[in-house]
Q: What sequence folds into this?
């Protein structure tokens, strides 16, 4: 039997150190499901937003203060948890620089309530947390379920989370790459398997809902329609529609290398 | 002489329709400089945040209302301007769906007060606005000056903004690509020219400034150090250090195509 006298000594155990965050907030069912699975695979630290941060993209807090307090949400579970006033990217920065005593072996983000497939990756707080960790060389994975409901059932996807995380811990991650994993909303028996995909070429067409406030001033609610123009059978959207778990390797070197020659032909 | 009886008829002129936004807010000197240059090249609509949005990444407003009001900031200038309560990406969505009567010929964002080179592209509200427009097929460019000061001098870079925008209007933009343009903080005579580059492989190491509030609760300010590990002479960081304007073609298909084979070799 092994006793930890402090968090520092605890972290010197042989278990992989796993950092968990999300963008739906620390009490969201999706992150609780992810914590449950990760507790079986490693020593778990949770540093997650105190409130929902959906659609926050890669926002960081540079003009405001950040609070980050140790909390106990589940008295009977082994993980150590911190609730942070900032964005998902802030959580990763705080965790790696202020809370964890060593570099984590893995960062997992999610499980998001709702899709982060195709172009949604650029708006996603879940994926930004994974990317943030990736920029400092931490193997990282964002998980999302195609069900926006707070009552979403994460049971069917736990098996696949475990498979993917085990493989990531075993194989490591290619340099400069993090994984964007999306799960179809299906019973476990109906999920056909896991496909490695490319990001579908899709975009949103917004439909703003224009209203007038009680003082007579117009305002808008952002709503929109997701348009997938990509007919390819190697995309995340295709895989999800076919009942597969979609895994897209995502990079944060945004250089469009193929366009350098094009732009060099301009008269600059 | 041509008279506009309405904004709709005005937009049927032969001038290119140029949408301008930024992340420092609609009154920032950087966007005022950009408006001045763009007024010489096309018909200008400004839809920009009412308050500073630095570090907002690709955040969008999905759990709150958006206000977007017509404003007059410079009575003697021809542009039409709207001040928006949301993020830079919100501004582009509102502009293209609610304000402009046709798709703009170009979207320009900035000129940002501070660098958006290398990894900063992922945190940048300026670049997210350009990318947002790019996802709907609008040729887009983000401009940034390596001077965070609100008293930054944008005079030396106006000539280069004009050269790049003229070329973009003439040549169009490669599909799925937007430009990330960073200017060194130099006198015009000391700027050596324009280089098309790749994004340097760099990252931030945060140094959180931990303080205690008057009620005894700890909080943090995010500060950090920029670490450029990339010794390449084809990067944006190299070009800027050498006194060049750095132009990086940026893509929003984040798929790490080179890693698909790697991940496919995992036991998934």
A:
């Amino acid at each position: 039997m092994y006793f930890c006298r402090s968090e520092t000594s605890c972290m010197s155990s042989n278990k992989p150190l796993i950092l968990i965050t999300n963008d739906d907030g620390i009490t969201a069912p999706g992150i609780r499901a992810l914590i449950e699975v990760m507790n079986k695979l490693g020593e778990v630290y949770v540093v997650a937003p105190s409130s929902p941060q959906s659609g926050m993209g890669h926002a960081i807090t540079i003009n405001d203060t950040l609070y980050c307090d140790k909390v106990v949400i589940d008295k009977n579970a082994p993980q150590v948890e911190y609730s942070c006033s900032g964005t998902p990217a802030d959580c990763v920065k705080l965790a790696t620089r202020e809370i964890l005593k060593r570099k984590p072996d893995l960062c997992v983000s999610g499980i998001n309530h709702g899709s982060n497939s195709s172009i949604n990756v650029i708006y996603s707080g879940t994926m930004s947390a994974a990317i943030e960790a990736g920029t400092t060389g931490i193997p990282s994975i964002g998980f999302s379920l195609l069900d926006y409901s707070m009552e979403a059932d994460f049971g069917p996807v736990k098996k696949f989370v475990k498979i993917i995380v085990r493989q990531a811990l075993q194989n490591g991650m290619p340099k400069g790459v993090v994984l964007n994993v999306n799960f179809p909303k299906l019973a476990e028996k109906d999920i056909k398997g896991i496909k490695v995909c490319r990001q579908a070429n899709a975009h949103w067409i917004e439909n703003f809902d224009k209203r007038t406030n009680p003082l007579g001033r117009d305002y808008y609610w952002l709503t929109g329609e997701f348009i997938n123009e990509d007919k390819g059978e190697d995309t995340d959207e295709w895989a999800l529609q076919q009942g597969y778990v979609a895994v897209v390797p995502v990079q944060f070197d945004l250089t469009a290398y193929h366009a350098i020659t094009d732009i060099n032909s301009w008269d600059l």
Summary: Chain A has a mean pLDDT of 93.
